[in-house]
C-alpha cells in the first residue's frame, strides 16, 4: 500500500518539480551584465569543450554529446566576443595569437576565405581562456559575426615595392564593403577596427555601408592608425636614447604618406628636437610602412608590428567597453576636429566607443604646414571612399 502511495507522489509531484526550468544564476554571461540560467551555463560549458574537440571549420552543436571523450570543464570567465576577418593572413595570424592571449577575450572567431581550419586548430591549442572558432568562406561570414562585441578587419591585399596604399583601393574597397555589409546585418552594435588599406578611404567606405543599412554609429568605427604611433614612439625613443615604453607621440591626420602627421611638439615627456631631428623623424614616421615594404622585397608589408599595434588598440577598445577610465589612443574616426568628415586624433575610449575626440592642441609652424598638406590629400581619399558606395 505505502509503496503505491510513494510511487504516486514521486511520479506526479516530485518529478515534475525537478524538471522545472532552473532559476537564473547570478553568474554573468560574456555580454557583461547579462544573467545566465544554470541550463545555459551547462550548454555553454559543453560548447566550450566542443569547440576544442571538433574540426574548427564545422558548425558546433550548442549542446549534446561531446563525442570522443568525457571532458569536464569549468565555465568561461566573463569576457568579450571578438572576430578577426582576414584571420589567416600575414597580420591575421599573429593578431589571432595575441588576441587568444588577451584575458578580456572569451570568444575568438577567426574568419577568412582561405586556411582558417588550420589556423584555428593551431591557435585553439593555446591554454588561455578564449574559445576559438573558425569560419571559412562567405557562406560562414554571418555565423562568424553574430553576437560579436568587436570586429577587427585586416582582410585585403598588401602593397608591393613601388605601390602606394591607394593602389590597393581597387581590390580592398570591395572586400571591405562586403565585410561591412555582413557586420551591419549580424552585429550592428559591434565596435569595428579597420586595418585594411587604404585606411583613409576604407573607413569612409565602411561608414557609407553602415549609413545605407541604417546602422552607422560614428562612435563605433575606427581606422587603426596605432602602428604610426608605435613607430613614432620607437623612433623618437631611439633619437632621445630613452625607453620607447616611456614615450607618447600623438600622430594625427590619416594613414598614408604626408597624411601621417606626428606632433613632435607634443611628445610626452616634454622634450625638444633640432630641426634636423624633426625632418628625420617626420620622414621616417611617414614612410615607416614603405621601409618595411621595401625590406620585404615583394613578400608583403608590415605584419608583426601591425599585429602588435592592432592588439594594443583592440585591448584599449575592450578596456573602454569594460568601463575603464582614462583610455586614450589615436585613431582615424568620424570627426569635427577639422573641416574634414574623418580625421585621426586622440580619442577617449569608453563603454560606447569613441566617447570624446580631442582637439589637436597647439601646433608649431612646421606642423601647421604639415596639417595643410595632410588635409588636401585626405579630402581626396575620403571622397574616393564615399563615392565608391554612393555612385
Ligand atoms: N592600418 C595599418 O596600419 C596597416 C598596417 C599593415 C597592413 N595593413 C593592411 O592590412 C591588409 C592585410 O595585410 P596582410 O599583410 O595581412 O595581407 P595578407 O595578404 O597576408 O592577408 C590578407 C588576408 O585577407 C584575406 N582575405 C582576402 N579577401 C578576403 C575576404 N573577402 N574576406 C576575408 N578575408 C579575405 C586573405 O585570404 C588573407 O588571408 C592590407 O590591406 C595592408 O595594406 C594596414
Ligand atoms: O605600408 C603599408 O602598405 C602597410 C601599412 O599601412 C604600414 O604602415 O605598414
Which characteristics define this entry?
391 residues, alpha/beta, 6-stranded parallel beta sheet, 3-stranded antiparallel beta sheet, globular, binds (2S)-2-hydroxybutanedioic acid, EC 1.1.1.37, oxidoreductase, peroxisome, Lactate_DH/Glyco_Ohase_4_C, NAD
Describe this structure in words.
It is a single chain. By secondary structure, the chain is of the alpha/beta class. Helix content is 43%, strand content 17%. The protein has helices spanning 2-18, 38-53, 92-100, 116-124, 141-145, 169-186, 199-213, 226-240, 275-286, 288-296, 304-322, 365-390; strands at 24-28, 35-37, 80-85, 105-112, 131-136, 150-153, 191-194, 221-223, 251-253, 260-262, 327-334, 342-350, 353-357. Strands 5-4-3-6-7-8 form a six-stranded parallel sheet, sandwiched between helices. It has a three-stranded antiparallel sheet with strand order 11-12-13. A hairpin with a 6-residue loop joins strand 9 and strand 10. Helix 3 (92-100) crosses helix 11 and helix 6 packs parallel to helix 7. The protein is globular and about 65 Å long. 43% of the residues are buried. Mean pLDDT is 87; it is low at 7-67. The site of (2S)-2-hydroxybutanedioic acid has 11 residues, from helix 10.
Sum up the overall morphology in one term.
globular
SSE-based structural type: alpha/beta
Helices and strands, in N-to-C order? HEEHEHEHEHEHEHEHEEHHHEEEH
Associated small molecules: nicotinamide-adenine-dinucleotide, (2S)-2-hydroxybutanedioic acid
What is the residue-averaged pLDDT? 87
Strand tally is 13
> Span between N and C termini?
85 Å
Q: Name the beta content range.
A: 15-25%
C-alpha Rg (nearest Å): 24 Å
